[in-house]
Structures are given as structure tokens and as C-alpha cells.
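[AMINO ACID CHAIN]
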Amino acid sequence: MKALLLVAHGSRRQQSNDEVVLLAEKLRKKCFAQYNIVHAAFLELAEVLIPDGIKKCIDEGASSVIVLPYFLNSGRHVVDDIPNIVNDTIKYHPDVDIRIAPHLGASDLMMDLLMASANSTKTN
């Protein structure tokens, strides 16, 4: 089974964390044919942390986990922190294929998303 783990930074503001969890739930419904399991996890400041999110996917039967960084830029968290955490976690699950997808901001679809968002503004 394939799993998708949406990883965000995490916030002291619970509403922000809840938005990420809700997004993961919407993703689950949208991409069920490709990913049987979809969860959210956080780098810091919120639960569920990345290692626990990976374990949760595996506990639900995932043989493959794609970690998707929900970040716009390739800052320290994307370049260093998330890969380090994932690599440390892989050691505990050698039989599971765990990979990191490119961060959201690196997507070729970003230009279309930005234009769609700009064009959806309401006039006052």
C-alpha cells in the first residue's frame, strides 16, 4: 500500500495546524486511487511529528511512504531538517520505501496556481 504524508512546519496557532490536517483529509478523498493512506505531520510545534506520521502510515499497512513537504521555498527546513529527520526514521523501517517528494514551491504547477489565485480576487 502507498501512503502520502503531507508535512508542514507546525504552528503555535492550532487553527493553522487544523488547516493542514483538513487539507490532508481532502487529499485522501481526492487521491485515494493512488494513495491508500494520507496523513498530515509537522516538523515542530505541533503533533503529529514527522517520525510519528511515518510510523502511523506504516502501522496502517503502508509499504511505501511519500513525504510531501508543504513548503514554498527551499529553506533550511526543506534542504536539511526534513531530509535529516526522514533519513533517521528510515533506519527503523528498512523494509519500507520512504521517499521525499519535491517541496510544493518547486512544482511546475505553481505558476498556474498563482495565476488562478490572483484571478479569483474579488473587486471592492
